[in-house]
Amino acid sequence: MNPFPRMHVSLYVSDLNKSVDFYNQFFGQDPAKIKPHYAKYVLENPSLIISFVENPDRVRQNFGHLGFQVETVEELNIRLWEARKKKIVAREEVGTTCCYAKQDKFWVNDPDGVQWEVYYFHADAEFNDPRYETEIASACCTPAEKTTA
User: Which CATH superfamily is domain 1-56 in?
Assistant: First the structure.
């Protein structure tokens, strides 16, 4: 069996116009389709179809985050530079150990707070930075550890 040719994601958004403005900047392209309360982007590299459905009552923040892995540090730096120009960077991290991997990354947040990371993977790691378990656990792949009395 061949691998799937392209991934599809659909997200609910509270304001389609704001989301389209944000994603035009983040993806660097316009939607392939736009209809009332609906927009779809078709990205070639990586192969991704992502659609946005305007439905404020169904917007949820509890699924984690989305992201793109880049092939080189140079590509990461170019994408970071572009995102800085557009003023959409929420946070930058260099040499972090998140999800048991050493990474350089930056984050952007869409108008509904959906977090996207753009990262370069350096190497696997045997530990996870403990600050992700207290400060910003929502921005890493591992949940905060529960403590018992």
Answer: 2,3-Dihydroxybiphenyl 1,2-Dioxygenase, domain 1 (3.10.180.10)
